[in-house]
Design brief:
608 residues, alpha/beta, Rossmann fold, Helicase, Ruva Protein, domain 3, 3-stranded mixed β-sheet
Length: 608
């Protein structure tokens, strides 16, 4: 018994390929330009169509070929009104017409392929008005093939037209581009694409939620073909009970996370709660979310929150009302500088996650980085302090021996990042912005007593050839930071001084230093001072490196500052000590404290 074979299924991307220019969605500019050109008879001999994959380049090329060769019983000239099928329309759309030649440049890249195709250009078309050459992925042609095409493209016969399509317009030689009329096919907006999908589901008799269609449209990233391929996949997800495809079904199919949960993840990371962010990321991953897609969703949310911050009530969003409320609340809690900083971190994270061997690990590390940034002061605060120092409304720190000590200690509540330190002399030390004072006068005394013994070395005698005075190891590092910051960093990390005096320097080197460090130090000293130096490398007896000493002094000063009675004041009840910084005010150091009060009010309260 012979069985009747089942009819082969035609995918939606082919079934609903546009048959007229009016069927094309999101390309109004292109349709308008072509309509006007055909109306006045100013039709170019070569067209270049560019855009992302699945946007309709090949379809547009075939419609153009139809329009150029459009002919009916009543119409005998080119026309973009293709509502009534012409004599040649069916064979052109099926790629079987003798006068419309399609070539895939991705598989036929050589010059011999181009010559073979162009051999027939001089012959008139068999039945159509024009002989049309459609070359897809034209950027894949070799240099020789492009050169073979140039002369014909410059002066083609009246009966020949060329239509090129490419996704990589920058790879097409400018000599070819300049001979073509270029059309950039735009990505289709998500709402337009969702409406198009809704119409197709109605024709197919499928039942898919509007939210699910919106997810498909967003995942397609403006590509019509991609959206139809995803819709094909979604239709078969229909529930056997109620026959509907829900948004959760589509999320599971695409590996997407619930947008509400992504909002939670963004809020945790932006507010500095690294633990909650990692737990939420793990939970979403366990539910099938793709880390790369989660990063992209976080970028979307960061953009939406930034728009809410900037535009206020003028911002419009295509999401549920409760999500809009949450985004506006986040916009109030975060500054524009913080949101910009998060955006930059997410942009890098998105690329890293896609390339990482373990995407989940890369996503978690990125979220921790955002959480760390969320615990830092907003960038606007630093900008205001710098501006205040420039215009003189805040006095810079006076040049005292204490300034040669390390700069601010690391945060006490959680070590977010290593503090910036300076080993330059007091006259060139960077100014730390003075904030609320909280340690007793003379609090920098421990810093003064910790100055190295080498700083009491005798002053060098006058020497006309001497260009820079270097009396201490810190002087050497400060001078090198202006000319050779790499050598300065190596000296701070690896050199344990034994003795430093005029023209004499003996030291011990830590493990890990470059073998040429000793020679580099001698050369630098002699070049800067203009005199020869006696350099002695010792195997033992070296003191602390500058870096180790600065770390120890920071810890000692921080412990002394934390013990100050000011911190037991009722005003600070429930506050969290974040950071202690040197200050030029009455007290020896300053403190940043987290709490619901202004620094000026705290200063007044302490002085009272």
């Amino acid at each position: 018994m012979n069985e009747t074979p089942h009819e082969s299924y035609q995918v939606l991307a082919r079934k609903y390929r546009p048959q007229t220019f009016e069927d094309m969605i999101g390309q109004e500019a292109l349709v308008t330009t072509l309509t006007n050109a055909f109306k006045v008879g100013r039709v170019a001999h070569a067209f270049m169509l560019t855009g992302v994959r699945g946007i309709g380049k090949t379809t547009t090329a075939r419609l153009l070929a139809r329009a150029l060769n459009y002919e009916t019983d009543t119409v005998k000239k080119p026309s973009v009104n293709l509502g009534t099928a012409g004599i040649h329309c069916a064979s052109i759309m099926a790629s079987t017409h003798m006068d419309v030649l399609e070539m895939d440049a991705a598989s036929r890249t050589g010059v011999e392929n181009m010559r073979e195709m162009l051999d027939g250009v001089r012959y008139a078309p068999v039945s159509a008005r024009y002989k049309v050459y459609i070359i897809d992925e034209v950027h894949m042609l070799s240099t020789g093939a492009f050169n073979a095409l140039l002369k014909t493209l410059e002066e083609p016969p009246d009966h020949a037209k060329f239509i090129f399509a490419t996704t990589e317009i920058r790879k097409v030689p400018i000599t070819v581009l300049s001979r073509c009329q270029r059309f950039d096919l735009r990505r289709v907006e998500a709402d337009v694409l969702a409406a198009h999908l809704r119409g197709i589901t109605g024709k197919e008799g499928a039942h898919i939620d509007d939210e699910a269609l919106a997810l498909i449209a967003r995942a397609a990233e403006g590509s019509v073909r991609d959206s139809l391929s995803l819709l094909d996949q979604a239709i078969v997800q229909e529930n056997e009970v109620d026959g509907d495809v829900s948004a959760d079904d589509v999320r599971g199919m695409l590996g997407l996370a619930d947008r509400v949960r992504v909002l939670d993840l963004f809020a945790h990371a932006a507010k500095g709660d690294g633990k909650a962010a990692l737990l939420e990321m793990r939970s979403q991953y366990a539910d099938g979310a793709d880390p790369a897609i989660v990063m992209r969703d976080l970028l979307d949310i960061c953009h939406d929150v930034t728009r809410a911050k900037t535009l206020g009530d003028d911002a419009d969003f295509d999401v549920a009302p409760d999500q809009i409320t949450r985004m506006k609340a986040l916009a109030e809690d975060l500054s524009t500088g913080q949101l910009t900083r998060i955006w930059q971190l997410l942009m890098k994270a998105h690329a890293d996650v896609r390339l990482a061997p373990v995407p989940l690990a890369a996503a978690e590390m990125a979220l921790l980085g955002i959480a760390v940034a969320g615990q830092l002061p907003p960038p606007e605060m630093a900008a205001r302090l710098i501006e205040a120092l420039r215009d003189g409304s805040i006095a810079p720190t006076a040049a005292t021996p204490a300034q040669s000590a390390p700069a601010p200690s690391a945060p006490l509540s959680n070590n977010l990042a290593p503090p910036a330190t300076s080993s330059a002399p007091s006259s060139t030390a960077p100014v730390s912005p003075p904030v609320m004072s909280a340690s007793p006068a003379g609090g920098s005394g421990s810093m003064m007593s910790a100055r190295p013994q080498a700083e009491n070395a005798p002053q060098p005698t006058a020497n006309p050839a001497q260009s820079i005075e270097i009396n201490t190891l810190k002087d050497l590092v400060a001078a090198l930071e202006k000319s050779d910051i790499g050598l300065a960093s190596d000296i701070r990390r690896f050199i344990r001084p034994v003795n430093f005096s005029y023209r004499n320097f003996s030291f011990q080197i830590e493990d890990g230093a470059s073998p040429s460090l000793t020679v580099s130090i001698k050369t630098a000293l002699e070049n800067m001072t203009g005199v020869s130096w006696n350099i002695v490398l010792r195997n033992d007896g070296g003191g602390e490196t500058l870096k180790s000493r600065e770390r120890r002094e920071r810890e000692e000063q921080a412990a002394k500052d934390r013990a100050h009675p000011a911190f037991s004041h009722p005003l600070f009840e429930g506050a969290k000590l974040i950071e202690i910084r040197p200050s030029a005010t009455t007290f020896g150091s300053a403190t940043i404290i987290e709490g619901n009060f202004r620094p000026a009010e705290v200063d007044d309260e302490i002085e009272d």
